[in-house]
Amino acid sequence: MKEVALSDLNLYENDNQLYIGHGDGFLSRIEGEDVKYIKEILNSLIENDSKGRIDDLFNNVLVNLELEKDYFVLLIEWLKSNGIIYYIEESSKDDKRLLKTYLLGVLDEEKEQFINDLNKLLEDSNFQITLEESIDDIDFCLVFSPILSKKINQEILTKMYKSNIPHIYIDYAPFTATLGPAINPALKMHCMSCFFNRRISNTVNPDVYLRLIRLDNKQFRQVSLMKSSIYNTLIEWLSNELLRLLNSDWEDGGILGKSKTINFITDEFDVARILKTVGCNICNERHVYRPLNG
Predict the structure, then answer these.
(1) Which helix (DSSP H) or strand (DSSP E) does residue 152 occupy?
(2) Could you name the domain of life of the organism this protein comes from (predicted)?
(3) Quick check: 278 and 284 in contact, CB under 8 A?
């Protein structure tokens, strides 16, 4: 029996109209003959800690109103498609789906603690993450700030794309956090190399970056992820986006093919859609055939 829950939205009632607050002053208005049914469904959820089984909701509506079951189901689907309610997946610790991941760019001594923290945030989901020591036979990879990484990391990223392993780019600094793009190679989308090329070209000193990555440098100091002042914000943000990707089998998500950056000093939020680089030898090889003149 399916169970649904009410999304974190503000609800307002005025005569025969219902208003839904989505934040930042954005309101949706629901009006018409079906408003009374919508109100009954939402009231039933609110009275039951914002969640309930569909059959119980239907019976609660029937207490005050007459409604056909088929039409009730349509109303439930409409509420779900508009993000007002969502289905709760039934799960237990024994039937969680175990997913293997590899962390690229995280200090070895911090990897296990990071996975533990991530699993705590995913505790109510159907998923549990396990840490692997290589990219062989993993379900996805988290890629932390590898823009200055050397050849070995480029080889790993190329192998993941060719092997259809989904991966997410994550960057952090004292005052900024970047999440995405999430890349699902099975969708024939851009690769991480395309993203790096565009990201480097947008830096203040691209020539300096390019000069560094061409040389065989050693990293003098690596920033601790766990000690970052924005660690809690970053991992909570990641858990929400990751859950959306996992629930859609990596076919839908706010960072799928997009990179999002928060600047905590200027309060700016930037979203960049990533495109394939022309002639990329990983994801966009093109063979040009010239017709014969004659």
Answers:
(1) helix 151-162
(2) Bacteria
(3) yes
Report residue 272 as tokens. Answer: 């960049």
Distances (CA, A) of 152 to 113, 148, 165: 24, 11, 17
Q: Let me know how many helices (H) and strands (E) the chain has, helices first.
A: 8, 13
pTM value > 0.70 = no
How far apart CA 13 and CA 5 sit, in angstroms, is: 20
**Digit-coded pLDDT (tens) for 4-31:** 888 888 888 877 788 888 765 677 888 8
Which residue segments constitute the domains of the chain, with CATH numbers given?
Answer: 3-88 (3.90.930), 93-273 (3.40.50.720)
3-state secondary structure string, 15-64? CCEEEEECCCCCEEEEECCCHHHHHHHHHHHHHCCCEEEHHHHHHHHHHH
Q: Which tokens belong to 22?
A: 């989505």
Write b or e for each residue in 26-63: b if 16 or more Cβ atoms lie within 10 A of its Cβ, otherwise e.
eeeebeeeebebbbbbbebbeeeeeebebeebbebbee
| pLDDT at 235 exceeding the cut of 80 | yes
